[in-house]
Design a protein that fits this description.
Number of domains of chain A: 2
Shape of chain A: elongated
Oligomer: homodimer
Organism (chains A, B): Roseovarius mucosus DSM 17069
Protein name (chains A, B): Transcriptional regulator, TetR family
Largest sheet of chain A: none
Pfam families (chains A, B): TetR_C_13_2, TetR_N
Radius of gyration of chain A: 18 Å
InterPro entries (chains A, B): Homeodomain-like_sf (IPR009057), HTH_TetR (IPR001647), Tet_transcr_reg_TetR-rel_C_sf (IPR036271), YxaF_TetR_C (IPR054156)
Structural class of chain A: mainly alpha
Distance between the termini of chain A: 56 Å
CATH superfamily of the largest domain in chain A: Tetracycline Repressor, domain 2
CATH class of the largest domain in chain A: Mainly Alpha
CATH architecture of the largest domain in chain A: Orthogonal Bundle
Keywords (chains A, B): DNA-binding, Transcription, Transcription regulation
Order of helices and strands of chain A: HHHHHHHHHHH
Largest interface: A-B, 37 and 37 residues
Amino acid sequence: MTRTKTRDLIEQKADDLFYENGFEATSFADIADAVGISRGNFYHHFKSKHDILDAVIDRRLAKTARMLESWDADKLPQARILSFIRILLTNQTRIMAFGCPVGTLTTELAKLDHVAQSRAAEVFTLFRDWLADQFHALGHGDESVSLALHLLGRSQGIAVMASAYRDETYLRAEVAALEDWLDTVTTKHR
Amino acid sequence: MTRTKTRDLIEQKADDLFYENGFEATSFADIADAVGISRGNFYHHFKSKHDILDAVIDRRLAKTARMLESWDADKLPQARILSFIRILLTNQTRIMAFGCPVGTLTTELAKLDHVAQSRAAEVFTLFRDWLADQFHALGHGDESVSLALHLLGRSQGIAVMASAYRDETYLRAEVAALEDWLDTVTTKHR
DNA sequence: ACAAAATTAGGACAATCGTCCTAAATTTTA
DNA sequence: TAAAATTTAGGACGATTGTCCTAATTTTGT
């Protein structure tokens, strides 16, 4: 198989496994098995566990950037922000099982004192800056970044509690509350 | 040394290490080294990793129950809830470094598909029920549990974001916002 | 079609994992 | 104080970890 295709397959499976089982709990053998290649082949593409983690983070950064771009198709900032809020519903099943991929990875890497922790947090930064842009467009000026961080935090909390209790009712109620909050924030500045 | 004292010391160090480095990343050797005993001795007190995890969860449940009892010394429900909100400030340094002990453990155990996940989430339940009692005393009736879960989720989100960015300013701003929210919730029903 | 390069498989490696065992040291009991 | 019970140390165990090496296979470039 061509280099890029195998690499991409490895990254894809590693991405899933890191999310579903955690970074530390996922071994080279696990990834190789999932892809269906030998550990030797795996090592030819990624020469250390740090390398594959880096690649997965790159992948997530790119995927997030693409998603944010797609949300830009909406003209209204409040509609864009609504798209963000609704990932909690879109990915409901996986979030209830494994939490938020961004939050859980940064948390794990913080505990491991891993150098890639800050890079993993850059996914948050993509969301933060994009959300801040939307709040800015809604006329919130200097408050925009705070509002963005507030919304990110709310989402993270919902993901943590929804997965702790595997409680769909809670998740839906909190998403509704978040939508109400967004309403308050947008109408206040009209 | 007496049985209970050694056991207690092991539980104490394991509790810290599970919090600081994660459950999976903490080995028997790590705990034994931290306590200053041999692995053999360790194994005499806890015959499996599942056992020591169970003991740590028991310990956290008991510690949480004691903390909630101590907060009951305050007569006003809003003052009690304020005590809960302010753990984010009391444990600020550790939360910014390692996140919330309850949230991060339940999240990790969910990914590991560990049987103890639901037991670990019982610490949340202690907080939830206690908080619901306070909201009930404030006259929120059927909404009490939802309010309790909402507050728990908000706290969890703050812990996740504060540790991801190690941002004290964010943490303090969000705690202030939570106090404002509490004000709104208490004055609405006066 | 042939040489060069890239990809793959499979195993070796030292270290560490959780677990278990035995024997010495210590404490408790009678 | 002697016997019994508990606590401790230290190492053995098979499995698994991340890493690395070699040799075979496949793809690529000419």
